[in-house]
Amino acid sequence: MADRPQGSAAEGENRPRLSLHVPEPKFRPGDTVDFSHIDVPEAGSMARPDEACDPAEMRDLAYGLVRVLGDDDKAHGPWDPKLDPDTLRAMLGHMAMTRAFDERMFRGQRQGKTSFYMKCTGEEATSVSASMALAGDDMVFPSYRQQGILIQRGYPLIEMINQIYSNKGDKLKGRQLPIMYSSREHSFFTISGNLATQTPQAVGWAMASAMKGDSRIAATWVGEGSTAEGDFHSACTFATVYNAPVILNVINNQWAISSFSGFAGAERTTFAARALGYGLAGLRVDGNDALACYAAERWAANRARANAGPTLIEFFTYRAEGHSTSDDPSGYRSAQERSEWPLGDPVMRLKNHLIALGEWDEERQEKMDLEAAEHVKKVTKEAEANGILGHGLHHPFRTMFEDVFEKLPWHLREQADQAVHERKTKFPEGLPEA
Amino acid sequence: MSETQTKDMPAGTQDGERRLNMIEAINDALDVSMGRDDDVVVMGEDVGYFGGVFRCTAGLQDKYGKTRVFDTPINECGIIAVAVGMGAYGLRPVPEIQFADYIYPGLDQLISEAARLRYRSAGEYVAPMTVRSPFGGGIFGGQTHSQSPEAIFTHVSGLKTVIPATPYDAKGLLISCIEDNDPVIFFEPKRIYNGPFSGYYDKPVQPWKKFDASVVPEGYYKIPLGKARQVTEGDRLTVLAYGTMVHVVEAVCREKGVEADILDLRTLVPLDIEAIEASIERTGRCLIVHEATRTSGFGAELSALVTERCFYHLEAPVERVTGFDTPYPHSLEWAYFPGPIRIGEAIDKILKD
User: Fold this and answer.
1) pTM over cut 0.90
2) Does A406 contact B118 at a Cβ distance shorter than 8 Å?
3) How is domain B226-351 classified at the architecture level of CATH?
């Protein structure tokens, strides 16, 4: 670049005017979508280094895209996890169940049974397959779109629905926004609702596990948009400083509500490449390829278990639906994006792979989808017996004041008395659960 | 202090009596807690090999090893966040934030996470951490090494806020905090680390060893959270204070010959409301003193509580003496500090009628 004039006598004179770059996504509503700028390497083309590899020797993996399932529906290359057909069918089953659950809950919100819901359509592999690559007692610190982990770990659907309905069966006592689950029994950390806070917490849990000479590792999920938070930098720094046995999963689904990934820096580099500056192992993975998701998470888990260090994985995927039930993506992005997405649909790709292996067919898929939908419907009915949001069947009033502290201090006791008094004033006849 | 001062008493003159300053007492509390419970871990900037910029963690890494006492990156958000994760694992982390002025990058992790973990998970996960941090001014720390941000934390549901005023209390309270299953903010008044402060910055500091409150027993003892300490008894007025200001107000009352019921609150949340009510019912007058800025300071909460609960016992309006609503200035530190003149005039005003 040529030298620009400097230090002119009159302020600002004879110098070029600066301009601010404000990122803009390639396509807006109504635009014809062309994703040819996205580089999709051949399945099987990326090398698979040893898990103890020095991050400096695997830079390519932070810019490439680990893919296993090819256009021929077959598994290719060194990242093929070589899972047996039963495992593949189980993976497909969890993903199908996740999708069926999302469909039913989304509808439930539209029917007024709850206030809010978030689907993970198109991103099922990033939680189901990744979770399958971990041990069941590895601790997970999810963000808000990892319901696939709970489904894969066998958390009862009725508990999820009770929580979504904030009903009297909700073991979180109706305190949390729908889908902010918690299950210690399933090594599933309480979902915050604040963004990226869980990322450094997972590092702290992993540090504790290492301090205690435990064998369990931690994994955490965060959206690409939230990697802009300072907490993400804290997590990467602490993870690398203490060589914590942790996996930092970044779900790059291209959209953070209406802000495209460019507002988190995607115009300049990949999210996996964030790893390089910290000295973390970085992998960039086709997030719609269930086998690649499994293989990458397993690679990182092996690395963490061997005390060889933390890994940052970018799952490159697409948020096929709105951010939540409160969002209408037709207002900011082209509807064509979903159909044009070059990495396809994770459920279809895995299904087609099993069919190509001769281990599955369309009839069985149809039957499985139907059974999943029927099962969710049945459990939803059971959960509705515990009440739906706003219909009175919530937890007893006083529970509002419990768990702020381990013991109820005087000021909360006084406030609890006031709340009970207000309720009695409002319902002088009395309510069974007041 | 007149009643508790022992003339020229050197350390350890009585059998089994050990005199410590507040730094040594805090160090002792950490040592005792770590010795009793392997899950207690200490971390923070410069706390490991070096032993902390104020020496509160000196010797602990040598004794307990690097996996239990270690330095951290300069990243307060990360320090609190990893403490949340460690608490969820089952440890009892005691993170140090080097100055209370630096705690703000960790606020989201404290307010939205540590303080609400138990509530939002209905008890499945808790964050039993004690965040130690030196606070307050009077050491020429300028606006970034002098603040008293306690009211930010008392405003948060789910956090406890504890402030000791003597070495004896510092040890007993800190052990209680570490054993507590809720997150606690433990603010250490750094102006009185080495000796109590009369408010006269131009007079030499008297070391703690000259005062009985520096007698710190060896081994394990606890002071319960939520219990105030009666500093002096009197019937002219009640004074509510904590940290450094306990000593300043005590010196002013002594000088003026005012027999005051001085309460060292020790714990701001949960507050010892019974002690406050009982005292004001007896004296009918109330002075509140803190070093923090005035508007929305903890004194406002105290004043409101006293007015709501003791109004018919009051014979004069409640008075607050506080720092000014400015950043803590460097050169004009002592003009900012709520010293003897401001306190003395407030006492005169309360006692006027």
Assistant:
1) yes
2) yes
3) 3-Layer(aba) Sandwich (3.40)
